[in-house]
Amino acid sequence: MKLLKTMLVAGAALVFSAAANAQQHDQTSPLQSGELQQNPALPDTLLNTLQQMAQAWRDDNYDIAFIQILPTQVNSYQYRHVFANQRHYAQLSTLDGGQQEIVQRDNVISYYSNSYQPFSIKGAYILDNIPGVVYADYQQLQHHYDFIDAGKARIADRIAQVIRLLPKDDFRYQYVLWLDEQTHLLLRSDMLDRNSELLEQFRVIAVQQDTALQQETQKLTTLLDQLNLPPLINVQGDEVAAETTWRLAWLPPGFKSVKHERYQTEIGALESVMFSDGLFSFSLYINENIEENLGEHYWQQAGNTIYSETLNNREITLIGQIPLATAKRIVKDVIFNANGQ
C-alpha cells in the first residue's frame, strides 16, 4: 500500500513538474515497413531545419487538429497557439470523451475538467499530449543524437521533410519527425524504442496558420486576457540540492539536474529531482521513511516507465520517458551518504 501511495504521489508531482518546466492499427514503425529512405545530409542543414520547427511552434500563430496514438488508445485534440504583444496564448482541448481544456496565458497554465477542481501552475508552455521535440534545444541535442535525413513524405495533404533523431547510445529512445516544408510546423512524430517499435505517435490531421486565423487569433487573446484564471498551485523547490543525503553514481550522458523539490505527503517527506537531456526527462523520488522492504516493482506504458526499489529502508522511485533497463541502472546506482538518515 505504501508503494502504491508513493507511486500515485510521485506521478501527480511529475505531471505538475513537467508542465511547470516546461494503436493498434499503426504499431509498426515506417522505418521497418520501408516507407522511408535514409539519405546523407549535412548535419548543419538538418540542425537548421529542426531549429526552424522549434521556432515556428513557439512563435507562430496556428490552429491544428491532431491525434495521439498510444498502445491501447487513440485520442484526438485541438491545439491553438498565438504569440502576440510578446505574450504566448494557447488552448488545448480534447475532442473525444470527457471534456478537458488546458489554456495558457503567458507564463500561467490553467487546467479545466469535469473530474477535478480547476487549477493553475507556472509554466513556459503546455506539455500535455504534445511531444517534447517541439521545445527541444537541438544545438544541445546534437551532442547525443545523430540527425538523419529520411527523405520526404505526405502528411495531412502537405509535403513534409522527414528527420530521424537517433541516440548515440542505448540509454534513451529515438524519434522520427515529419516537418511541414511550408509552415515548418511538426506534422507527425513517432517515438520508437531501440528495436524501432512504436511507443507513441503524434499526427496532425488539419492545420491552419497565420493570415487565415486573424479573427480567431483576436478572439483567443481577448478571451484569455479577460478570463479569471483558477488558483495558482505553487510547488516549492530549489534547483540545487545542497543538503541532499544521496547522489547518483551513474547518469546517462547528457542528462542534467533541472529541478529539485520536496513534498510533505501522507507517507512522509518525499524528495524529488528531475533530470533531462533536453528531449527526454525523468524524475527520481526518494522516500526515507520505509519500515519494510517492498522489493522491486516496475510498470511501463508507451514510452513511460515507473521503476521502484527499496534499499536499506529507503524507497527509490523513478518515473520518466526512458527505457526500463536505463531506469534500473540509475536506481541501483543511487548512493546514500554514510551519515544519511
UniProtKB/TrEMBL annotation:
The keyword Signal applies. Pfam families: MucB_RseB, MucB_RseB_C. Residues 1-22 form the signal peptide. GO terms for biological process: regulation of polysaccharide biosynthetic process. The keyword Isomerase does not apply. Residues 242-334 form the MucB/RseB C-terminal domain. Its main location: periplasm. Residues 48-217 form the MucB/RseB N-terminal domain. GO terms for cellular component: outer membrane-bounded periplasmic space. It is found in: Periplasm. One of its GO terms (molecular function) is antisigma factor binding. Keywords: Periplasm, Signal. It comes from the Bacteria. Belongs to the RseB family. This is Sigma E regulatory protein, MucB/RseB. It comes from Pasteurella testudinis DSM 23072.
